[in-house]
Amino acid sequence: MSASAFIERLREHAASLRAPNASARSTTPAGPAAPANPAAPANPAAPANSPAPAAPAQNPQLSFWESPVARAAINRRITGDPELGPETYLARRHGPSIAAPHVVSLRASDSKLEIALVEAGSCESVTGLDDDERRLRVARGRVPEPLRDRISFELGTFDRWEPPEPLGAAVCRLYLHRREDLEAVLDRLAAMLVPGGLLFVEDFVGPARFQWTDAQLEVINRLLACLPPELLTDLSSTDGRQKRRVERPSLARLVAANSTEALRSDAVVPALDARFERVEVSLYGGAVFHQLFNRIMGNFADRPDLVGVLMELDALLTDTGVLASDYLWGVWRRA
Asked: How far is residue 135's CA from residue 141's CA, in Å, rounded to a whole number?
């Protein structure tokens, strides 16, 4: 990116911050995947589009996806409009291209995309699959009563599921990066989709097992060193400790805690591109904001300007190729 283009991006960002209600944009949380327990700390790979529950004093914002300013910035990266969530955008832009009436959704979340597809007339019905009853209860509870005969969430796994009819589309949110058999899953999806069938993906595609690169750790830790102490209080602790540095997690402890988390995250994009045709893909960043804001997001509640600048810094470093994106939103098509 040339110096003039860089300056122009900064000017655009500054103008967006001066717009009315800049701190309250994206009043409808955009997003594909909520934690199973909305009151619990966010999954480290949960995308910015995850729905953010209200944060009472005893439940401060711990992660970037709980910030309306961060969500608005990512909406703009994906849809071009800070107030337009990706689920509505996808239903409007790509829903008419769904070539068969049934859709499968792998891993239950907040039901927003499933609802948007049915309400837009993009498909007749959606089957959601998950092996976690807690996530299923959350997803089922968010489906409006009039749509419950068209949107169902079932206990089960994709490996054993057989579609009642050929699929017009499949939805994968925070699912593929956990699959050791990633290629087999995508091959099975391709076989189930009708010709021209669409695959909607939002996922963590950063370093496998969260083994952050030297470059992103340097950027994050230099930024932390510049922030005032009041913004560094670790909100997940009760002793007022400060977050001073981000380190790579211990592989042994990570595997012991969750053997599938970020298991194949760095293989997701190559595996998709090898089997499907890209329709629209947004690598919307996260190499900085993902871990920078982790456990301290609530401290920035009164600093939407600073959140906006840090989100734009992440975007600039991603767009110029200095850092790779940790998150992806995209649409692929079966040939």
From this structure: 10
Between CA 81 and CA 76 the distance in angstroms is 4
Average pLDDT over residues 174-197: 97
Alpha-helical segments (H) within 206-303 = 214-226, 251-257, 268-275, 289-292
- In angstroms, the CA 329 to CA 335 distance is 20
Burial class (CB in 10 A: 0-12, 13-18, 19+), 30: buried
Instruction: Please give the class, per CATH, of domain 3-333.
Output: alpha beta
Return the domain boundaries, the chain. 3-333
Please name which of 89, 56, 92, 55 lies closest in space to residue 75, comparing C-alpha atoms: 89
As separate numbers, helices (DSSP H) first and strands (DSSP E) second, the chain gives: 11, 7
Count of alpha carbons within 13 Å of 205, Cβ hemisphere only? Answer: 24
Residue 247 tokens, joined: 């380190």
Name residue 202's amino acid. E
Question: How far apart are the C-alpha atoms of 322 and 216, rounded to whole Å?
Answer: 9
**CA 14 – CA 11 distance, rounded (Å):** 5
Strands (E), the chain: 102-106, 125-130, 151-155, 167-173, 193-204, 277-285, 327-333
Place of tokens 């009039």: 146
Sequence-ordered list of residues with C-beta below 8 angstroms from that of 12, at least 6 positions apart, any chain: none
pLDDT tens digits for range 153-171: 999 999 999 998 899 999 9
Q: Residue 29 has what pLDDT? A: 28
Q: Which residues share a beta bridge with 295?
A: none
- Contact between 325 and 283 (Cβ < 8 Å): yes
Q: Specify whether the CB–CB gap between 75 and 175 falls below 8 A.
A: no
pLDDT tens, residue by residue, 51-69: 433 334 456 899 999 999 9
Assess contact for 318 and 327: CB atoms under 8 A.
no
Cβ-contact 79, 87 below 8 angstroms = no
Give the bridge partners for 128, in sequence order. 105, 153
* Residue 216: partners with Cβ closer than 8 Å, 6 or more residues away: 287, 288, 291, 323
Section 297-308 average pLDDT: 97
